Each structure stands twice: as C-alpha cells, then as structure tokens.
Amino acid sequence: MGAWKEIVGESVAAQSQPRSIRNRILFIDVIHPTWMQQLQFLKSTLLEKVNTYLGEPLIQDIRFKLGKIAPPLPTLSKTDTWQREDLDEGTRKRIEGLLQKIEDGEVRRTLEDVLVKGAKLEQSRKK
C-alpha cells in the first residue's frame, strides 16, 4: 500500500489510493469519475505493475470505487537536519547501556539504529 506512488507513478497516485486487499482483489479509491474510467482502461497494466512489484501474481483483480483519498504522508528526506545532529554524551551512554546485554550482533545494531534515530528526532523537536 505504501508503494502505490512508486508502482503507478505520481499522477495516478495523486488521484487514487489503495484501500484494501481481499480475496486477491485490490480495492482502489478514486477521487473522480473521469479518473475512475481512465484507470479502468489501464486496469490490466496496473495489475501487471502491482504483481511485478510484488514479485509474484498475488493480485488477481483490481476494483475501483469513488471515494476520498488521504493526503500523502510526509516522507523524510536524507537532507532532514535532525538526522545529521550529534547526540549528547549522556544519551549515547544510555543507549549503549540498553544495548549492552544484547548478544545477537544484528539485533543489537538494528536496535541501536532505531534508538539513535529516535533520540536524534526527539532532540531536534526540543529545539
């Protein structure tokens, strides 16, 4: 669902939004009847694009319905300043203390990444 824009392109994604998947049918909300008709013409192409993205033919059909679509969620770009901020020494030590007893290296690195990003974001919000 989150990759809709990547799968169908910006112009189609601005006019439509996946609602749900049931029984291998993808239900799409569309904001205007004209767009609904256009997407109906593109149905086989969209179906192929979705299944190609998924890597296997998981979706058998697409159904369109008039409806409202939610505004896109803001995405974090690599240039967001909070990601470049350095953590203070105390926060770094607290994170290291939390990770100290985790023996699995991959789990420790993943959790450290999550904790550091969360701490940086929280730190930037306080400014």
Structure description:
This protein has helices at 4-8, 10-15, 33-41, 43-54, 81-84, 89-99, 105-126, and strands at residues 16-22, 25-30, 61-66. The protein has 127 residues and is α+β, with helices and mostly antiparallel strands. Helix 6 runs antiparallel to helix 7 (105-126).
What's this model, at a glance?
With 127 residues, the chain is an alpha+beta fold. It has two domains: 4-66, GMP Synthetase, Chain A, domain 3, CATH 3.30.300.180; 81-126.
Characteristic key phrases:
127 residues, alpha+beta, 2 domains, 3 strands, 15% strand
Helix-strand blueprint:
Elements: H1 4-8, H2 10-15, E1 16-22, E2 25-30, H3 33-41, H4 43-54, E3 61-66, H5 81-84, H6 89-99, H7 105-126
User: Portion of residues in helices?
Assistant: 40-55%
Low-confidence stretches: none
Between the first and last Cα atoms, what is the distance in angstroms? 34 Å
> Which band does the percent of strand residues land in?
5-15%
Shape: elongated
Q: Look at the structure and give the CATH class of the largest domain.
A: Alpha Beta
Structural class category: alpha+beta
**Assigned CATH architecture of the largest domain:** 2-Layer Sandwich
Strand order of the largest sheet: 1-2-3
**How many structural domains are formed by the residues?**
2
